[in-house]
């Protein structure tokens, strides 16, 4: 009914003219004393023909509307797939759409090329910068002074920031692919802990971890990056107490006894560039780590949940779907 009323509204001028001409015919017949029955017969014949023509026209109108509505729901569509234009104006609109579609395709291609160029540049830059970083690690390897240990820690942070920018660029690239397979959670967690072992030792923080006998369907490279980012945050904001890693139902929990997060900041901690009160107190905080982690987990089909109390610590949950997790 709504489509029919819309149709009448679109063609109200022809309908009004048809009624007007009928009234004019009756008026002229009255002036020339034409029998009223003849005028009514003329109106009846014209009305029948007009209604039949309008019905056929409405059927075409309705069919084209349904066809266009169907195409609107398609994720990808070419202009050539649209219904054939019914008049010159519709033909002009389709020509305009073709030009706009061609311009949009050109912009998409240019964007993809620019993204690939940026990714290639940062990938090359990261690999080049890692050479002097590795060389510095080797130079400092045999040194034992306190200053050298501090230099090693700062060098480790530089290495992490370099890796962070590379993952940031890769995540935003349209060419990024994901390789899903069954991954051993215990192996992945132990590798992350091993990577941060020197930081645990330097800060004299114990880690409490019991083996997790679970396998998860995921991309190991990206999930490892998320684990390392959450572990890095826990180490950054914890100066005493301990860090615990354990399984809670279908979630891996990384719990620390650090400074915690204010309740009003928790809903926004994974937003881009949001640092909250903690970030304002610690000027080195950028907020990008958790933001990237949330985006990556969403692409992997996982979730992140945070519970925290100021001055008591933080729990970060990496939540997996039941179908993704299996027992060894």
From TrEMBL:
Location of this chain's protein in the cell: Cell membrane
Protein topology in the membrane: Multi-pass membrane protein
Residues in Histidine kinase domain copies: 124-324
Keyword Ligase: no
Annotated TM spans: 15-32, 39-59
Major place of residence: membrane
GO molecular function, one term: kinase activity
Catalytic activity reported: ATP + protein L-histidine = ADP + protein N-phospho-L-histidine
One Pfam family per UniProt: HATPase_c
UniProt KW keywords: ATP-binding, Cell membrane, Kinase, Membrane, Nucleotide-binding, Transferase, Transmembrane, Transmembrane helix, Two-component regulatory system
InterPro entries reported for this sequence: BphY/WalK/GraS-like, HATPase_C_sf, HATPase_dom, His_kinase_dom
EC number per UniProt: 2.7.13.3
Protein name per UniProt: histidine kinase
Organism, scientific name: Oceanobacillus jeddahense
């Amino acid at each position: 009914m709504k489509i029919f009323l819309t149709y009448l509204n679109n063609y109200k001028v022809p309908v009004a003219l048809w009624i007007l001409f009928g009234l004019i015919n009756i008026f002229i017949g009255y002036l020339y004393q034409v029998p009223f029955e003849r005028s009514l017969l003329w109106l009846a014949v014209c009305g029948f023909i007009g209604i039949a023509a309008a019905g056929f026209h409405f059927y075409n109108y309705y069919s084209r509307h349904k066809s266009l509505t169907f195409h609107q729901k398609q994720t990808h569509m070419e202009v050539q797939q649209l219904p054939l234009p019914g008049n010159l104006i519709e033909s002009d609109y389709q020509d305009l759409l073709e030009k706009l579609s061609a311009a949009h395709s050109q912009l998409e291609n240019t964007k993809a090329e620019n993204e690939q160029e940026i990714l290639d540049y940062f990938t090359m830059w990261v690999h080049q910068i890692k050479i002097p970083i590795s060389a510095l690690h080797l130079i400092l390897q045999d040194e034992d002074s306190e200053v050298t240990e501090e230099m090693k820690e700062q060098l480790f942070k530089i290495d992490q920031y370099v890796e962070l920018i590379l993952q940031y660029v890769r995540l935003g690239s349209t060419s990024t692919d994901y390789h899903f397979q069954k991954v051993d959670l215990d192996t992945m967690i132990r590798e992350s802990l091993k990577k941060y072992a020197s930081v645990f030792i330097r800060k004299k923080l114990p880690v409490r971890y019991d083996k997790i006998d679970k396998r998860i369907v995921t991309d190991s490279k990206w999930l490892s990056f998320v684990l390392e980012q959450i572990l890095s945050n826990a180490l950054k904001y914890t100066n005493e107490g301990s860090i615990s890693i354990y399984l809670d139902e279908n979630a891996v929990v990384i719990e620390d006894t650090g400074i915690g997060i204010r309740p009003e900041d928790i809903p926004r901690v994974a937003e881009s560039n949001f640092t909250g009160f903690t970030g304002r107190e610690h000027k080195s905080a950028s907020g990008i780590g958790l933001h990237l982690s949330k985006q990556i987990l969403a692409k992997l089909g996982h979730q992140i949940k945070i519970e925290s109390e100021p001055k008591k610590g933080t729990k970060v949950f990496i939540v997996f779907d039941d179908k993704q997790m299996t027992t060894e």
